[in-house]
Amino acid sequence: MSRRRDFPYVLSEHKVRTPAGVTPDDAILYDNFVVIDPRDAAKSARDLREAIGAQPGDTIVVQTPVFERSPLRPPPAPAPVSRAGFDALKTLSIAELLAVGLRQWDAPKRGVALFLFPGEWYDAIPPGYPVTTINGETRPHEREPGRDDRRHGCLAYGVLVPVKS
């Protein structure tokens, strides 16, 4: 018989970085974590099982936390209702983007910066609309499990916006 074990550790194959606009009130620190090495899944699985004391037959459930927006921040404005509305975001100033609820992920590179969509906009993003992830990959938006994961109220993707240095 399998036993369920919740695992409150952070699993990551990437170094942690703090996005622009994250305040100390938003920060959550983890003392324990297991690094997942995508080049050696079998070793990573063994390390994970050993770290949590899992026995043969135990089911391990990894649930990443969903961090909501700080209560000190206002809720986002309603999402645009069309592709043209999402495209228009690229013409807004940084102050206007922040006012509607987007958050800047990192410093501008080559004259553009990534602004993350508010999590509340997930269902409004048009299917196939090009979004850029926090890893720099641009792909068409698709509604599927896991794509609505939120950190500090934002999705892990958004739009690249031209900014003045």
Walk me through what this model shows.
It is a single chain. By secondary structure, this protein is an alpha+beta fold. The protein has two domains: 4-62, no CATH class; 83-162, no CATH class. It is 15% helix and 25% strand. The chain has helices spanning 41-52, 83-88, 94-100, and strands at 4-7, 10-12, 33-35, 59-62, 103-104, 112-118, 130-133, 138-140, 150-151, 154-162. Strands 5, 6, 7, 8, 9 and 10 form a six-stranded antiparallel sheet that branches. The protein is elongated. The model is unreliable at 1-32 (pLDDT under 50).
Keywords:
single chain; 165 residues; alpha+beta; 6-stranded antiparallel beta sheet; two-stranded parallel sheet; 3 helices; 10 strands; 15% helix; 25% strand; disordered N terminus
Strand and helix layout:
Layout: E1 4-7, E2 10-12, E3 33-35, H1 41-52, E4 59-62, H2 83-88, H3 94-100, E5 103-104, E6 112-118, E7 130-133, E8 138-140, E9 150-151, E10 154-162
Parallel strand pairs: 1-4, 2-3
Antiparallel strand pairs: 5-6, 6-10, 7-8, 7-10, 9-10
Averaged pLDDT = 76
Oligomer: single chain
Instruction: Bin the strand percentage.
Output: 15-25%
Strand tally? 10
Largest sheet: 6 strands, antiparallel
Number of helices: 3
> In terms of per-residue confidence, which ranges show pLDDT below 50 for 5 or more consecutive residues?
1-32
Cα distance spanning the termini: 60 Å
Number of domains: 2
